[in-house]
Amino acid sequence: MDTLVIALRVALSLGVVLALMWVLHRRMQKGQFGAGRARGRRAASVEVVARQGIGGKASVVVVDVDGERLVLGVAEQGVTLLTSREAPAPDLAIVTAPVALPTADAFRAELDRQDQADPGLPTVAATPQDTGSAAAPLPLRPRGRRAQRDETKRTVVPTAQQLQGSVLSADTWRQAASALRSRRTG
Predict the structure, then answer these.
(1) Cβ contact 106:135 at 8 Å
(2) How far apart are CA 81 and CA 60, in angstroms?
(3) Which helix (H) or strand (E) holds 86?
(4) Quick one: which of 15, 44, 69, 92 could link to 87 by a disulfide (CB 3.0–4.6 Å)?
(5) How far is CA 26 from CA 15, 23, 34, 37, in A?
(6) Cβ count within 10 A of residue 53
């Protein structure tokens, strides 16, 4: 009998604790306590502009908060306001007229100026379709490759004889495939 009474007391106590946790959770979601009240007000926008470590656990942080720029010292002991001022306006450019893009001729003239400054760098050669019009589109080149001006610097494609026995040779791959086929059948 005593065991049944103790078990009922434990179950009742657990029920009361769970009900209390549920009520507190609901009230916090509705914002009836301090943490949830800020939802009704406009939340401050915080943007970290820069951060620089100056020691093991110390750093200087530049933060923009609602149009004000703060320089904060952050250490293990806490955060200290070093200075504050008005945040600079963002650099926005409003375009109200058509923008003139550089033409291929202007691009080539710039490349020629760079070539005269450092003649060792390869540059873009004129193509026949660009030379006739003044507003031809800029020449495109694959990313990571430099364009070449004269014909002597072109990439040389090796012949089949030069590739003989190489992994790049098609004959090597054919031989490997036939060896695999012969192992399967025999």
Answers:
(1) no
(2) 10
(3) strand 79-86
(4) 69
(5) 17, 5, 14, 14
(6) 11
Question: Under DSSP, is residue 25 helix (H, G, I), strand (E, B) or coil?
Answer: helix
Sequence-distant (6+) residues with CB within 8 A of 68 are 84, 85, 86, 87
Rounded CA gap, 106 and 127, in Å? 14
* Range 119-128 burial, b when 16+ CB lie within 10 A, else e: eeeebbeeee
User: pTM score, two decimals?
Assistant: 0.30
The one-letter amino acid at 106: A
φ/ψ of residue 49, rounded to 5 = -85, -45
Residue 74: burial class (beta carbons within 10 Å; 0-12, 13-18, 19+): middle
Phi, psi of 76 (to 5 degrees): -65, -30
**Residue type at 31?**
G
Q: Contact, 30 vs 36, CB < 8 A?
A: yes
